[in-house]
Amino acid sequence: MAKGWTLLLLYLHISPVLCLKCLQCVGTSSMCRMIVRTCPSYETTCISLAYSSQDGNTVMKGCSTTQLCNQTSIIDTGSRSVYMTATCCESDFCNLNRYSTAPVFSNRLECNSCRSPMLDCSYPYQSIFCDEVNNNCVDLVTEEWWNGVSSRSSYVKGCGSGKTEQCMDVFAFNTGSYQRYTYLSCCNGANRCNDGRLSIPMLTNNNGISCFGCMETGNNECAVENQVPVRCKGMLIRCMQAFGKY
């Protein structure tokens, strides 16, 4: 019985010595005042956890269980994005390194974001982080005219997909009574590269091409006898026929 008590006392005496020691702090990647913490027996790793948002980077260091280790998560609400990543190690003071989310998320493009029905996206813009499919920052401007009067417009900034060399174009058509211009521009050379403002390039010069035009609204406008000749301008160099729902 005496031997049993001796072994128990010996175990109680040495168990604190076997507990892991980690550095503990809460701060930023460049300023995190660390202290030494002796971990409880159930926390067997040292952790460095960083999360990043528009408000800045925050770093947390300390003791942890293995369930929290080596995880990366992204929360993107459109108006706000939070990135979180954690790494662990299992020796005393091993979480000494500076740590942030920047290296982990450097491959995600950040773009300016806005949506306006009146071509008046205002600065400062919000920002969003693009997913792996949308690899460009884009501006998309649309304006419509009925009988020479602007009737609808929109301005959108955000993320988009496609090859950059093919991602700058104007889609426009003119039926005589109805005109629509959509201007797309994109970039991916730097975060928030879509910082400028686009304007619809007005087409005023006649290019010598004429087409028949109509815009069907249910009143037989596109019957042959009701179609009108339209003089094409600028880059509008083809006659076209399209069907769709307006």
Automatic annotation (TrEMBL):
<dbReference type="InterPro" id="IPR016054">
    <property type="entry name" value="LY6_UPA_recep-like"/>
</dbReference>
<dbReference type="GO" id="GO:0005576">
    <property type="term" value="C:extracellular region"/>
</dbReference>
<keyword id="KW-0964">Secreted</keyword>
<keyword id="KW-0472">Membrane</keyword>
<dbReference type="GO" id="GO:0005886">
    <property type="term" value="C:plasma membrane"/>
</dbReference>
<protein>
    <recommendedName>
        <fullName>UPAR/Ly6 domain-containing protein</fullName>
    </recommendedName>
</protein>
<dbReference type="InterPro" id="IPR035076">
    <property type="entry name" value="Toxin/TOLIP"/>
</dbReference>
<keyword id="KW-0325">Glycoprotein</keyword>
<feature type="domain" description="UPAR/Ly6">
    <location>
        <begin position="20"/>
        <end position="108"/>
    </location>
</feature>
<keyword id="KW-0732">Signal</keyword>
<dbReference type="Pfam" id="PF00087">
    <property type="entry name" value="Toxin_TOLIP"/>
</dbReference>
<keyword id="KW-1003">Cell membrane</keyword>
<feature type="domain" description="UPAR/Ly6">
    <location>
        <begin position="109"/>
        <end position="203"/>
    </location>
</feature>
<feature type="signal peptide">
    <location>
        <begin position="1"/>
        <end position="19"/>
    </location>
</feature>
<dbReference type="InterPro" id="IPR050918">
    <property type="entry name" value="CNF-like_PLA2_Inhibitor"/>
</dbReference>
<dbReference type="InterPro" id="IPR045860">
    <property type="entry name" value="Snake_toxin-like_sf"/>
</dbReference>
